[in-house]
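ARCHIVE CARD
CATEGORY: sequence design from structure
SOURCE FIELD: tokenized fold
FIELD CONTENT:
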């Protein structure tokens, strides 16, 4: 069982966030019928009034003929951040923004997950690792 108490100290979070690139390419797709999507392939599902947004591998989206526009790399910050932590998302999204990198962030119970355009993968990882060295 994992420790359920996440870290809240911003400096500690940034210094130890350990960005890890997950293998593959990922897309966001909107579906009207979530039952048509095998649950084992979704990284994330978000219910919106217009439909359900799913994050799935690009390969699975193509196989299921799901429309998508944005192809992303998935970076996990390998530190257990508390859902009550203040400032972590703002810190890394601001730093990525200063480097002209768009990011889409999903917070899980244990980790923050950042999706960046595949063309920006190496640069994003470099920016994130450099943040850890400045603390």
């Amino acid at each position: 069982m994992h420790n359920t108490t996440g870290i809240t100290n911003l400096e500690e979070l940034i210094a130890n966030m350990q960005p890890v690139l997950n293998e593959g390419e990922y897309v966001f797709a909107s579906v009207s019928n979530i039952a048509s999507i095998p649950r084992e392939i979704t990284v994330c599902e978000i219910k919106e009034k217009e439909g359900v947004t799913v994050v799935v591998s690009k390969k699975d989206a193509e196989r299921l003929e799901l429309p998508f526009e944005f192809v992303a790399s998935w970076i996990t910050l390998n530190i257990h951040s508390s859902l009550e932590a203040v400032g972590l998302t703002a810190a890394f999204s601001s730093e990525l923004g200063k480097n002209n990198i768009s990011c889409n962030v999903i917070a899980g119970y244990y980790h923050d997950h950042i999706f960046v355009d595949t063309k920006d993968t190496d640069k994003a990882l470099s920016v994130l690792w450099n943040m850890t060295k400045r603390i």
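CARD ANNOTATION: The chain has a mean pLDDT of 94. The helical segments are 10-15, 58-63, 88-98, 121-134.
SHELF: design records, drawer C
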